[in-house]
Amino acid sequence: MNQTEQFEIQLNQHKDAVYRQMIRVCGNHDDAEDVLVEAILNAYKHYEALESPEKFQAWLSVIGRRVCGRIRKKESLLPVIALGESISEPYTNPEPFDSGDEFVSKVHSVLELIPEPERMVFEMRDIKGLSGQETADELSISLAAQKSRLHRARAKVRELLDDCVNCA
Asked: The domain 3-86: what is its CATH number?
């Protein structure tokens, strides 16, 4: 019996079980059918790599789950791709922020409300553009401490700016 015949026998034994599993993984019959077809094609191309015929169903299922994952990832990116295609030119602000800008003044006032250790990390990372390691070295703290402070600072800035969006 040649390799193609062995593949067909294995496929006929296990395709229904794998299809049912793909329905659960993909969430609908249409995607499950597409995934199964692509998984079968991939499995046929690489059938010689299968170490044991007893593992065919599990092997085909793994291939199907990976295909389904790629489809889901591609579908989740579609709105982003569509948005990118709808924008004809990159946004350029004709007027750069100046110190009199209302938003910039709100950011500066929010920064004054943040505790100094967190504010220093925020300013070094997000305003001056230093790397995490450079900031940690400059402040003589560990990289983990720098990351923690930056996370807290960013959260506080977001929270305070959200509260201040409608303020005068």
From this structure: 1.10.1740
